[in-house]
Design a protein that fits this description.
transmembrane helix, about 375 residues, transmembrane, CUT_N, mainly beta, cuticle, single chain, five-stranded antiparallel sheet
Length: about 375
């Protein structure tokens, strides 16, 4: 199989006062992935294998988990490399689905061809396995002696739900990069083939830093735990929920994503969907590590938002040229001051002495 390679980038380096301009051609790492990775979805682990064009001398690891030795592989000298990820380690995300019914297990793998750095030939793969729930049918022979009434049934598909972080409001575009404090809109939306059939309640939400640390946002009843992170949700429609919020991030962790559960229930005829009865939330935070907590909802599905890269902004004081270019001229308060040398001070004292003696003489002449 032929491999397409982009032309190298030209780097121009100017050597001032030392010689002519030198042109250096950057040399990329001479390796690449051949074909598609081989994925094996096991009962308790995912096995990923890659074939490379040349012997592999880099690193293969789970994104955000390079510091964990169980989440990386540094096999060198072979054209095949791979890694096995157990569901209980390395942040393998598991999401329950009702349509289709089963569980999605997903993770993100980085294959880096340089032993130390990330280069342009490196690749990132989103790996996902789906484990479908098995339907068992029991058959038994039954002799019928007389005519029976036939029963016709129709299965209504369960709604398909998604969780998006939108820019500004409910009609904004999905956010991938955002600054701290930027206003966004959390939206949960389910699509159904029928109307006035289902209701939804969002509950058990948490924010995750992709490295094993998570903080809960909504409890099992769908109520907010920290109003500064996410307030109580609004439900404008039967299968839509949302709330405005501002972007934040974990300390020294640029990426984060959100994960929730959505309970799907049947809607009673001529009634409104039941909603959580929540009080005003207080500020409450609790870090959670380990496997996800199971909640007692039979018809709940898991939804996860896109990963957001949160960017910090720093205030810089404007420089003097920037202030002057804006038409503002800085001024300093001026204080009047007089400085005297030694001779000037002596002349002043002499003048004062003469005036004093003249005044005394005038007084004496009046008395005589």
């Amino acid at each position: 199989m032929s491999t397409f390679r982009r032309p190298s980038t030209l780097l121009t380096v100017a050597l001032l006062a030392l010689g002519p301009v030198a042109v250096i051609r950057a040399i990329p790492v001479d390796n690449n992935v051949e074909g598609e990775p081989e994925i094996t979805c096991g009962p308790d682990a995912i096995d990923i294998n890659f074939k490379t064009r040349n012997p592999f001398t880099g690193r293969l690891y789970v994104k955000g988990r390079f510091d964990n030795g169980d989440c990386r592989n540094e096999q060198v000298g072979r054209k095949f490399t791979g890694i096995t990820l157990n569901f209980e380690v390395c942040g393998v995300t598991r999401l329950r689905s009702l349509n289709p019914r089963g569980i999605f297990a997903s993770t993100t793998i980085v294959i880096s061809f340089h032993p130390l750095f990330v280069t342009k030939v490196d690749r990132v793969y989103k790996i996902q396995c789906f484990y479908m729930e098995a339907d068992k049918t029991v058959r038994n022979q039954l002799d019928v002696s007389e005519m029976t009434t036939a029963l016709a049934t129709h299965n209504v598909p369960m709604p398909v739900c998604r969780y998006d972080i939108l820019d500004g409001g409910p009609h904004g575009a999905p956010v991938k990069f955002a600054t701290i404090g930027q206003q966004v809109y959390h939206q949960w939306k389910c699509e159904s083939e029928t109307t006035d059939t289902f209701c939804m309640i969002v509950h058990s939400c948490k924010v995750d830093d992709e490295r094993g640390t998570s903080v809960p946002m909504l409890d099992a009843d769908g109520c907010s735990l920290d109003k500064y992170v996410l307030n109580n949700l609004e439900y404008p429609e039967d299968l839509t929920a949302g709330q405005e919020a501002h972007v934040f991030k974990f300390a020294d962790r640029p990426a984060l994503f959100f994960q929730c559960q959505i309970a799907i229930t049947l809607k009673e005829p001529a009634t409104d969907c039941a909603r959580p009865n929540c009080q005003a939330p207080e500020r409450k935070r609790r870090a959670v590590e380990g496997p996800p907590v199971e909640f007692p909802f039979d018809n709940s599905i898991d939804v996860a938002s896109q990963t957001i890269e949160a960017i910090e902004t720093f205030y810089e004081a404007p420089t003097l040229p920037a202030i002057e270019s804006g038409g503002v001229v800085p001024r300093l308060n001026q204080v009047s001051a007089h400085c005297f040398g030694i001779f000037s001070l002596g002349a002043v004292l002499l003048c004062l002495g003469v005036l004093l003696l003249g005044a005394i003489g005038g007084i004496l002449l009046k008395r005589t």
